[in-house]
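Re: that backbone. Tokens:
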């Protein structure tokens, strides 16, 4: 295993850099294709979220891999390599596994313990499978990361250590008031109908919001979200994107999370909407209460940061969430998850090292079966008068002898190979038994074919 991850996140880079480096789905696909075309990488996938951009690859050379992956990230993000390099982090082999497992558990999230990252890891794996850039290593890694993340949430109290970005953002907007009290009888405009926007709408619905208006570029997706909200007893309706300006005049709360590359809500548009609504009685100057609360969960941002200068507007965005989320999580729960992650990393490394030797063991047993078949054929020539029962008994006896001779060394070599530093046992086994490297490679290719077929079947079931 030569797993390498190169990336940047809210922990290593300012939001302004993350915004500029954000990758669309098409850009991610092109990045993966170019990564596989590069010499050091055998397989690759990306994990791109609102606050992290990471490229995972199986490489044959560490230094060449770091250089190539860094260059590719710079090329496809549009941020120059010289500017990007100070914010990049690199993890290799077990450290890379530890990093992804920690991310899956929410330990590396802006708000510790948030669970949305699991869906994003699942999407990253699906993209790699769809493009056939994720091979056995990354399939095993990401699937195990999903299992580890689920274990963390079900077996520890990490969910209590932090909250989802949506809930945390709404609490910031409520500014100390209980969200359910703050949201009561308010009108909300939700821009976008993806996973984050849907979660925001559902959270507002549970909080007792008076009405939710959903605006989305794809009307069908907005209508589906509206149906869900109505089924939960919340008044909801869908509008086209060109109706956002009119809805701003009526809205008390706006949540925006789209995939747009430019601003969705400008400061001028928001100022105009506020001018078109009557000012609250007795309000004047900077003392006026919050008339419009904005939660921007998009990266790059949907809402113009200049709205901070508009009186009566409160904006919470990714950057302010990062600054405000340094709350002290429950130390015992975090420690429990860290222990779980360390144990899972060790188990994953052992399993990968053991799996590395499996093609060699299979090739050895295949060679032994060939020797048995050849000797039985020679016996047939020397003893042509053997009946079928005698021939079957002799054949079975020879096979049992070979199996017993191979059993102990093959079991032991798998145990040794699973330990740290055990990668060389496969080479030793090939050398001792003079195994054909092409035969071993053929077994590995057959395993990869089985894996690809399994991926296709799994996607079909999904």
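Recovered sequence:
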């Amino acid at each position: 295993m030569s797993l390498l991850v190169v990336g940047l996140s809210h922990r290593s880079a300012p939001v302004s850099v993350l915004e500029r480096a954000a990758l669309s789905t098409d850009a991610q696909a092109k990045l993966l294709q170019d990564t596989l075309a590069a010499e050091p990488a055998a397989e690759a996938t990306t994990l791109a979220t609102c606050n992290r951009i990471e490229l995972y690859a199986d490489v044959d050379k560490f230094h060449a891999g770091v250089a190539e992956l860094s260059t590719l990230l710079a090329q496809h993000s549009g941020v120059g390599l010289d500017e990007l390099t100070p914010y990049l982090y690199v993890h290799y082999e077990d450290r890379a596994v530890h990093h992804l497992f920690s991310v899956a558990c929410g330990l590396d999230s802006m708000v510790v313990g948030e669970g949305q990252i699991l869906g994003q890891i699942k999407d990253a794996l699906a993209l790699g499978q769809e493009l056939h850039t994720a091979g056995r290593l990354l399939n095993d890694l990401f699937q195990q990361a999903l299992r580890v993340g689920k274990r963390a949430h079900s077996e520890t109290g990490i969910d209590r250590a932090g909250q989802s970005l949506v809930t945390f953002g709404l609490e910031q907007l409520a500014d100390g008031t209980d969200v359910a009290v703050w949201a009561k009888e308010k009108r909300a405009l939700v821009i976008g109908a993806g996973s984050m926007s849907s979660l925001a709408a559902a959270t507002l619905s549970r909080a007792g919001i008076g009405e939710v208006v959903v605006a989305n570029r794809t009307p069908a997706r907005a209508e589906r979200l509206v149906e869900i909200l109505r089924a939960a007893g919340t008044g909801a309706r869908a509008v086209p994107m060109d109706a956002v300006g009119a809805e701003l005049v009526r809205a008390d709360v706006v949540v925006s999370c789209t995939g747009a590359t430019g601003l969705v809500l400008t400061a001028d548009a928001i100022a105009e909407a506020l001018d078109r609504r009557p000012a609250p009685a007795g309000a004047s100057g900077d003392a006026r209460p919050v008339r419009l609360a904005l939660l921007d969960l998009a990266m790059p941002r949907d809402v113009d940061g200049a709205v901070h200068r508009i009186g009566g507007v409160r904006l919470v965005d990714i950057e302010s969430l990062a600054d405000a989320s340094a709350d002290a999580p429950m130390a015992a729960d975090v420690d429990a998850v860290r222990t779980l992650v360390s144990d899972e990393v060790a188990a994953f490394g052992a399993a990968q090292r053991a799996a590395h030797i499996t093609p060699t063991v299979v090739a050895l047993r295949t060679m032994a079966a060939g020797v048995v078949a050849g000797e039985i054929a020679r016996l047939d020539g020397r003893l042509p008068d053997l009946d079928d029962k005698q021939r079957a008994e002799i054949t079975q006896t020879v096979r049992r002898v070979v199996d017993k001779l191979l059993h102990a060394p093959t079991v032991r070599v798998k145990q040794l190979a699973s330990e740290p530093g055990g990668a060389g046992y496969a080479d030793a086994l090939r050398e001792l038994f003079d195994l054909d490297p092409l035969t071993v490679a053929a077994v590995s290719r057959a395993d990869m074919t089985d894996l690809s077929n399994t991926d296709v079947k799994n996607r079909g079931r999904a």
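The chain has a mean pLDDT of 86. The beta strands are 3-9, 41-49, 52-59, 89-92, 187-191, 211-215, 235-239, 253-256, 292-296, 313-317.
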